[in-house]
Task: structure prediction
Amino acid sequence: MNNEEFWYIVQTNPNCEKKAAREMRRRGYGVHIPRTGVLRTHHRTKKPIMKRRPAMRGYVFLRFKGSANWYELRQCQGVKGVLYVDGHPFALHQDEILKIIRAQRAMAYDSKPVRQVRREMRNGGRGVERAVRSSKLSGMQPGRYVTAPMSSAERLLARIEAITKKGTVRAIVVSDDGKDRLPVEFTDVDNLELVDVAGKAA
Result:
């Protein structure tokens, strides 16, 4: 069997996918980490940030270049072991890994909002902020609840009434006893947080 035609699933220690991959590459192994995109907002600038994280938490794909050396693999930092099935290391043909890589490039593992932002980034990033805003608004349907900051320690609870064409959120402020109070229009969507009717994060 030509080991270069087969890949194996390696289990890593918690949150050690990158560390394990770096160590395995240093020793000459082929490594692939399927990734998915995550949208974040910078806490200070409020600018959108695209982060990449492993799609398979705690696992990476490994290919030996030459003969398999399981003992040396287990010496790699961050590596917990290889996945076994019926007493043997589970092997995937490289065609299966190529399918995963192609799917990753096609953004198959990303959510719809992330795909929208990634397309904008590929086109030069001119519409990234607009895409992030659109993705956040997509989850805010009439009848759902949001909170908005009143002070450093307090947040205002409101029920969504409508999303306007200009991207603002019209809502009705809800008092502590559950009664409607004043209508309000939120223009800063980044500061809104979706919650359930009990006021807990959705």
